[in-house]
Amino acid sequence: GPYAIVRHPSYTGAALLSIGQFILHGSLSSLVRRSGVLDNPALKVIAMVLLIWRMIVAASLILRIGHEDETVKSISRAEWENWAKVVKYRLIPGVY
User: Fold this and answer.
1) pTM of this prediction?
2) What b/e string do you get for 50-64 counting C-beta neighbours within 10 Å, with b at 16 or more?
3) Which site among 8, 17, 73, 88 is 20 to 30 Å from 38 CA-CA?
4) Are the C-beta atoms of residues 7 and 80 closer than 8 Å to each other?
5) How far apart are CA 94 and CA 8, in angstroms?
6) Where are the transmembrane segments (predicted)?
């Protein structure tokens, strides 16, 4: 399953979802841009707040990964160390 590839596959999925949403809503031909919603200053502020919120959530998840690894390691050190040797990457295969 996904835990054989990365240690935190749900975070990988959340990151891919966020990237997809940014591409979908940020592209020049997106409904958000074509509808003129972002021409309204109040709605533009709301969109920016949502974007900033997403960035904060993403950063907090990245920071949380190390804490989760340490917690699991403290519960079952030998098993976690064996798993970490096999599954070397936390979030992105071949990168991190």
Assistant:
1) 0.73
2) eeeeeeeeeeebeee
3) 17
4) no
5) 14
6) 42-63
